[in-house]
């Protein structure tokens, strides 16, 4: 977006300086970017599916017609500012973007970033175009705070420091609490604190860092992050040579044993449960910082020394392999600790003369100086895939320049939670540009995520992004000066730039798609080195890969960060209410790229819609299955596939990668050792591994429909999978149907959850007090309790329809003229009233109108859709009436089924569980109750956009 640095701009009280000369890429002169977009009004009403209560309501909000209802709901509920019901309340995306972009543009002009007012206007228009068209997004704090009367905090990631004094430890508690209150997360390394084996100056024995973790954990559990209900996000790191490292490693594993004991005793220890607060250390991610010396000792089977924090002397010697196995076993048991590779981190450090990198933010993607912060932004990669399936290298590069410019401007007006963090951030200006939708991009272009081709594309894009970012940073240094700490770190910074460029030279292309991307990256790195040698760089850090949880939904991304697709099918919310199941838009495009004709594409997509996977899809060749492998399900990506993808992108990132490698429940401790070791060997900076179903404090996960491998005999941990009962509220909707079967009369009363899910059934037959009436009452109670524990209604329909016994025969129900028994009738009636058409059709239960349509050669599903539409009719919201009334096709061109899922699965995770026979091991959203989806090393709710910790 720049291309030269000519012209001058006078700043307040400062001497003239050359500014950036901007050029239009996405916009046209004389046309405001909003004028090129179709806008529409919508009503946003968000409810909690557990009790039907309204979480958020704002009617008449204005958004582009191309934005999904899900993105609309998340932005309106989370990012619009102003008290509800007042004139100050924002109601249009235009107002939100104007508030944010206007602040950036005004600050840029004030600080001499632009060569002229015209260049500032171009920047303003280009930024607004990119935001309203979902090309990229800033992190959540920007949308929360910029342009408001509150503190203009723009950073989501923080790193603190703790020294070996009580004053410093107490300052840590306070600073962490302030950050949590603001809705962000923080990380800290406790290795400076002397161990419990060392003496205090008074002669007593020190408590050790693990003991001080208790206080910080209690504080984090008490403070509602950002004033909301989710827990705070924090990272605690300890160096592998600390004398208390074994205690640190086993801390959370021991607590997990306690959780199991409490659960088996009947206590509520689920995530957010009333009794989980009695368990310690649950509010932090723990990581061990390992050195190359330690990993080489593991490799050779040597011993390793633990050193005193006060004297630096070796106070104990341990078997490196045994310690490494303890780390792996603890992570196998409870997912903690993760691992960080210290020498790799320091080797890519641009500012080592200022200090070491000792910690990371909670999700491990930001690794830089203590008492610093980083603001993030992520690019939507799928927006740069052209119709001919080539990647738009030019526009991607120009957007990267625009985003880096804006991110650097934000540091000039940003507020920070502590003065120390503000000083360091202003002096080193750390940025964190990244991307989302990589998994969708690879699938759309026919690349398997776990393939050399997929990794080559990912590596080339990441190299181009970082190369352009640092080139722009060097250009900014020529305009507004390098970062303050550059002079003392110049040689180190140049060395790291050369390392990135050398890694780019080593990247080997294997297909045609990544070749022009790699060529552009090579050019960008050459220009970066040339300009940087002259000007220095404006930013000590430029890029990383963040989870993109909430903003991923804002961008309507299929996949977050570096992640592959979670599931091949997702749910789209409709403008008029309800939702529809759609096959991800990348799938038909991938099939066409793989050479399948349109007829086969449609057949395969229909199969995926029904089954949720591609195995045995009609006409799909087995060698193409891998293209559609997902994070979980019937065909999931192998753990090392995730590690290799991280390794393919890590050399081109200033920071690290937020990602958890998920492994099946059958994984062994040896598997963890292998993954952790390979992460070091492949040059990663940090790594976390999560074994399915290893934590009690989250919904449990097993693939019940697939044969399990024999359990690992050691260590012995007995898992007891216990469902949770979802009770009906005191006041709930119900429906009573009277019936007659073979002359016997009775009643069915069906009670529902406020969101229409069936929760109880009472069947009355025979005189009160008779044996038959008593048996039917007992049967009703058993069915109702089972429904509340999650047994699907369709399971009962399958089991009890066609059951034969007297009374049987004619009924008075026009939809069910004959019944084999009272039970046969009851469950057919319940199916007609409470199951969607597709599930009923599979079970052979159709209404009279549907059977008539079928006999006439018509599509009975259309009859079902009309009936459901009539039953769910409500005042039509402002906007696209066609989509509101019919649930029309997805605007993004994805293939959609005709099934309305309002009363069925409530999200993509639930659908995947239902169709593929596994349970996604993720927490329920504490805001709206929807099961969350993995997003990097966090979880994000596609219902309301809430995250489990990372912003």
TrEMBL record:
Every copy of the Ribonucleotide reductase large subunit C-terminal domain together lies at: 155-690
Q: Which domain of life is it from?
A: Bacteria
Necessary cofactors: adenosylcob(III)alamin
Record-linked InterPro entries: RdRp_reductase_class-2 (IPR050862), RNR_2_N (IPR013678), RNR_lg_C (IPR000788), RNR_NrdJ/NrdZ (IPR013344), TSCPD_dom (IPR024434)
Region annotation (Disordered) ranges? 1-21, 874-912
Which CDD domains does the protein's record reference? RNR_II_dimer
User: What are the recorded GO MF terms, alphabetically?
Assistant: cobalamin binding; cobalt ion binding; nucleotide binding; ribonucleoside-diphosphate reductase activity, thioredoxin disulfide as acceptor
Enzyme Commission number(s): 1.17.4.1
Domain spans labelled Ribonucleotide reductase class II vitamin B12-dependent N-terminal: 44-134
TSCPD domain ranges (all copies)? 730-832
Q: Which reaction does it catalyse?
A: a 2'-deoxyribonucleoside 5'-diphosphate + [thioredoxin]-disulfide + H2O = a ribonucleoside 5'-diphosphate + [thioredoxin]-dithiol
The entry's keywords: Cobalamin, Cobalt, Disulfide bond, DNA synthesis, Nucleotide-binding, Oxidoreductase
Q: Which family does it belong to?
A: Belongs to the ribonucleoside diphosphate reductase class-2 family.
Give the protein name, as stated in the record. Vitamin B12-dependent ribonucleotide reductase
Give the organism, scientific name. Answer: Halostreptopolyspora alba
């Amino acid at each position: 977006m720049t291309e030269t640095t000519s012209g001058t701009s006078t700043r307040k009280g400062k001497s003239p300086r050359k500014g950036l000369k901007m050029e239009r890429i996405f916009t046209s002169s004389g046309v405001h970017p909003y004028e090129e977009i179709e806008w529409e009004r919508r009503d946003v009403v968000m409810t909690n599916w557990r009790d039907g209560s309204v979480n958020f309501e704002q009617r008449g909000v204005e958004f582009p017609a191309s934005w999904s209802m899900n993105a609309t709901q998340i932005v309106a509920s989370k990012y619009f500012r102003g008290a509800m019901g007042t004139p100050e309340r924002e109601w249009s995306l235009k107002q939100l973007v104007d508030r944010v972009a206007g602040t950036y543009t005004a600050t840029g002009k004030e600080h001499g970033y632009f060569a002229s007012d015209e260049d500032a206007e171009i920047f303003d228009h280009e930024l607004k175009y990119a935001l309203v068209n979902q090309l990229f997004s800033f992190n959540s704090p920007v949308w929360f705070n910029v342009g408001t009367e509150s503190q203009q905090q723009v950073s989501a990631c923080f790193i603190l420091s703790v020294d070996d004094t009580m004053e410093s430890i107490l300052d840590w508690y306070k600073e962490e609490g302030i950050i949590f209150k603001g809705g962000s997360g923080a990380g800290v390394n406790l290795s400076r604190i002397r161990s419990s084996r060392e003496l205090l100056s008074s002669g007593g024995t020190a408590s050790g860092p693990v003991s001080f973790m208790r206080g910080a954990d209690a504080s984090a559990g008490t403070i509602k992050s950002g004033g909301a209900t989710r827990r705070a996000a924090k990272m605690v790191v300890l160096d592998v040579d600390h004398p208390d490292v074994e205690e640190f490693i086993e801390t959370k594993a021991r607590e997990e044993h306690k959780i199991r004991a409490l659960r088996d005793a009947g206590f509520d220890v689920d995530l957010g449960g009333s009794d989980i607060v009695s368990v310690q250390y649950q509010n932090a991610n723990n990581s061990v910082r390992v050195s190359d010396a330690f990993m080489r000792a593991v490799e050779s089977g040597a011993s390793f020394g633990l050193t005193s924090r006060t004297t630096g002397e070796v106070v104990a010697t341990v078997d490196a392999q045994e310690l490494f196995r303890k780390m792996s076993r603890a992570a196998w048991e409870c997912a903690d600790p993760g691992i960080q590779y210290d020498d790799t981190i320091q080797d890519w450090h641009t500012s080592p003369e200022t200090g070491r990198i000792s910690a990371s933010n909670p999700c491990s993607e930001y690794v830089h100086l203590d008492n610093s912060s980083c603001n993030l932004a992520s690019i939507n990669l799928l927006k740069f895939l052209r119709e001919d399936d080539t990647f738009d290298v030019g526009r991607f590069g120009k957007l990267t320049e625009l985003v880096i410019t804006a991110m650097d401007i934000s540091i000039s007006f940003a507020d920070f939670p502590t003065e120390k963090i503000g000083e360091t951030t202003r002096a080193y200006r750390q940025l964190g540009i990244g991307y989302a939708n990589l998994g969708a991009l690879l699938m759309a272009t026919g690349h398997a995520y776990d393939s050399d081709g997929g990794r080559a594309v990912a590596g080339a894009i990441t190299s181009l992004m970082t190369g352009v970012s640092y080139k722009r940073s060097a250009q900014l240094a020529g305009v507004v000066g390098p970062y303050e700490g550059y002079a003392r770190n110049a040689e180190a910074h140049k060395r790291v730039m050369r390392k990135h460029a050398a890694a780019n030279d080593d990247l080997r292309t294997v297909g045609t798609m990544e070749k022009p991307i790699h060529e552009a990256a090579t050019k960008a790195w050459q220009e970066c080195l040339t300009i940087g040698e002259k000007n220095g760089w404006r930013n000590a850090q430029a890029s990383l890969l963040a989870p993109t949880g909430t903003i991923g939904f804002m961008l309507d991304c299929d996949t977050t960060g570096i992640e592959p697709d979670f599931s091949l099918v997702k749910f789209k919310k409709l403008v008029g209410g309800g939702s529809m199941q759609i096959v991800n838009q990348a799938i038909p495009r991938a099939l066409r790229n793989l050479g399948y004709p349109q007829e086969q594409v449609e057949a395969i997509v229909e199969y995926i819609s029904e089954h949720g996977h591609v195995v045995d899809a009609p006409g799909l060749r087995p060698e193409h299955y891998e293209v559609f492998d997902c994070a979980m399900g019937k065909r999931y990506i192998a753990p090392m596939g995730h590690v290799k993808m991280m390794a393919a992108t890590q050399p081109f990132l200033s920071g690290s990668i937020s990602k958890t490698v998920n492994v099946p429940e059958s994984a062994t401790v040896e598997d963890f050792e292998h993954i952790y070791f390979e992460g070091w060997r492949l040059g990663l900076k940090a790594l976390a591994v999560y074994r399915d179903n290893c934590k009690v404090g989250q919904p449990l996960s097993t693939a019940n429909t697939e044969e399990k491998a024999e359990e690992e005999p050691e260590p012995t941990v007995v898992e007891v999978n216990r469902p949770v009962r979802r009770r009906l509220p005191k006041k709930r909707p119900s429906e009573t149907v009277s019936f007659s079967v073979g002359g016997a009369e009775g009643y069915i009363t069906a009670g529902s959850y406020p969101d229409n899910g069936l929760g109880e059934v009472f069947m009355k037959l025979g005189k009160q007090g008779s044996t038959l009436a008593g048996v039917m009452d007992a049967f009703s109670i058993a069915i109702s309790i089972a429904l509340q524990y999650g047994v699907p209604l369709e399971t009962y329909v399958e089991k009890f329809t066609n059951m034969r016994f007297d009374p049987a025969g004619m009924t008075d129900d026009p939809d069910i003229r004959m019944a084999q028994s009272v039970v046969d009738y009851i469950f057919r009636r319940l199916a007609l009233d409470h199951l969607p058409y597709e599930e009923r059709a599979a079970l052979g239960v159709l209404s009279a109108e549907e059977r008539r349509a079928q006999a006439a050669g018509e599509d009975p599903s259309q009859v079902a859709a009309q009936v459901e539409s009539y039953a769910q009719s409500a005042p039509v919201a402002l906007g696209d009436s066609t989509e509101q009334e019919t649930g029309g096709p997805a605007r993004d061109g994805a293939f959609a089924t005709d099934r309305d899922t309002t009363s069925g699965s409530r999200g993509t995770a639930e659908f995947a569980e239902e169709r593929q026979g596994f349970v996604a091991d993720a927490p329920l959203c504490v805001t709206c109750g929807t099961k969350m989806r993995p997003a990097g090393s966090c979880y994000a709710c596609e219902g309301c956009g809430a995250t489990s910790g990372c912003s």
